[in-house]
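Q: How do we represent a protein-ligand complex in a form that can be generated token by token?
A: Start from the inputs.
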Amino acid sequence: MKPVLSQPPHVDWLTGAFSRTPLLRKTTRLADLPGVFADHSGWQQADPQQIVYDVEMLDTLSGSGELFTGVTHLYPGKVGNEYFMTRGHFHALREQGEVYFGLRGTGLLLLQDEQGEMHLEPVVAGSVHIIPGYTAHRLINTGTEILSALAVWSSTAGHDYAALAGGFAWRVVEENRQVQVREVQNG
Ligand SMILES: O=P(O)(O)OC[C@H]1O[C@H](O)[C@H](O)[C@@H](O)[C@@H]1O
Ligand SMILES: [Fe+2]
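Then emit the structure tokens for the protein with fe (ii) ion bound:
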């Protein structure tokens, strides 16, 4: 039998760039994130075309049992004093977890479960983040460089953005040149 060598995709661990492979790309701009940042007038005054994050995904099999792999590149920036972040989501299939691997930059992974329990994990090159099921997740770039993280998740997990339409319970802002976590006041 003749052995068959198929070239797997390659990722540059320093930048998160994939090469030699078909990719799916999604760009999220400020205009795509109404109501996400606390400072509404700051958001309105900012350039709506400003890219907040790019996601590059391997174009792989989907369906029960299959895994998706992607890299999120989250740009540095702020709206008002709030750092650029991903929209964040629960999985539509709530029990599905996900793994993030920090590749470059500095930031935080904000985790919020269905009971409203919150955690923050520092994201740096080499950090490994086990996101349990039933837990919403959002990346926040608190640094001055691109924050890139590789993610692996179930292809059937899906996204539930509506469940967090009211936002996460914590916001991460810069105050006095320091990263501060603020609890959102309801009502
Ligand atoms: O879907 P968002 O909250 O905008 O986050 C952007 C992306 O981040 C990660 O790469 C996740 O694995 C993706 O499933 C998600 O779509
Ligand atoms: Fe996810």
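Helices lie at 40-45. The chain has one domain: 10-183.
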